[in-house]
Specification:
about 270 residues; alpha+beta; 3-stranded antiparallel β-sheet; 6 strands; 11 helices
């Protein structure tokens, strides 16, 4: 089945398809309502018969066969009562640009709802395009957009974009979600950019306190300042280890932090 064109007809979108050969076809269509998060699916079964061959066979039987090598034109079969060589139907999935254009409003609440719905249906590109329309707002919708863009960038492994959105959030005195921040900082450290990771963590700790996860961030800072050649600072590292040992007795990093404290205090007298 070959796609021919798409056009607007009486306020509806019409897609024109043409079968390239005779046979049975199953066409699956899908339409999404981004605002409601709803999906509508439709399956159409078609039988395409080759009328040219049918006419040639009939002509041969009557002594008027067509010349060999003539091409027959495949057409939609009579089984469905269709008399043309083309069919029209709703498009399976609207392109991103068309979906954005269909949301003809500047209402940030509507845009936010559409972006969330797009993300729920795993249409990340559309969600990002919509959130970018709200990202500079100094409202709850702006914060939601900045958080969404940050999380999408982290999930996609786009470290530069993720750091950029973290910087943007900092301008609004907002802290990025800890779970995504941990993924980002671990990726940055693995990529050899521990300095950027440390900056992001320290900035987040200055903006908010989260007793459930701060030990994870503190431990990464302590390890960075203990082992990074360019930014090694044992005094700062020791301070972070001590915070974990003193403030997070149930942390999975508690024993490791105590061991590092003893090691640094034993071998580096000047940082006690």
């Amino acid at each position: 089945m070959v796609y021919r064109r798409r056009r607007l007809l009486d306020g509806a979108t019409e897609v024109v398809l043409r079968p390239d050969q005779a046979g049975d076809y199953r066409l699956d269509f899908q339409r999404q309502d981004l605002l409601r998060g709803e999906r509508e699916e439709l399956a159409v079964m078609l039988n395409v018969s080759d009328r040219g061959n049918q006419r040639a066979a009939a002509a041969a039987d009557s002594g008027g066969a067509r010349q060999a090598g003539s091409e027959a034109e495949p057409r939609i079969g009579d089984a469905l009562g269709l008399d043309g060589s083309m069919i029209s139907a709703e498009p399976p999935i609207d392109p991103i640009a068309e979906a954005i254009a269909s949301i003809d409003t500047d209402d940030p609440a509507v845009i936010s709802a559409a972006a969330s719905a797009a993300r729920e249906t795993d249409n990340r590109d559309l969600a990002a395009a919509l959130w970018r329309r709200n990202r500079d707002l100094e409202t709850e919708y702006g914060r939601e957009a900045r958080v969404g863009l940050f999380e999408l960038s982290v999930a996609a492994g786009r470290l530069v974009d993720a750091v950029s959105y973290a910087d943007l959030m900092a301008e609004y005195q907002e802290a990025p979600p800890t779970a995504s921040l941990i993924v980002l900082t671990d990726a940055l450290i693995s990529a050899g950019d521990g300095s950027t990771a440390a900056t992001a963590i320290e900035r987040t700790l200055a903006l908010r306190t989260d007793p459930a996860t701060d030990d994870e961030l503190l431990f990464r800072l302590a390890r960075h300042y203990e082992s990074d050649r360019a930014e090694r600072n044992l005094r700062r590292s020791l301070g972070y280890y001590r915070r974990i040992a003193g403030e997070f007795p149930l942390s999975r990093h508690w024993e490791a932090s105590r061991a590092r404290i003893e090691h640094i205090e034993r071998h580096f007298f000047h940082v006690r």
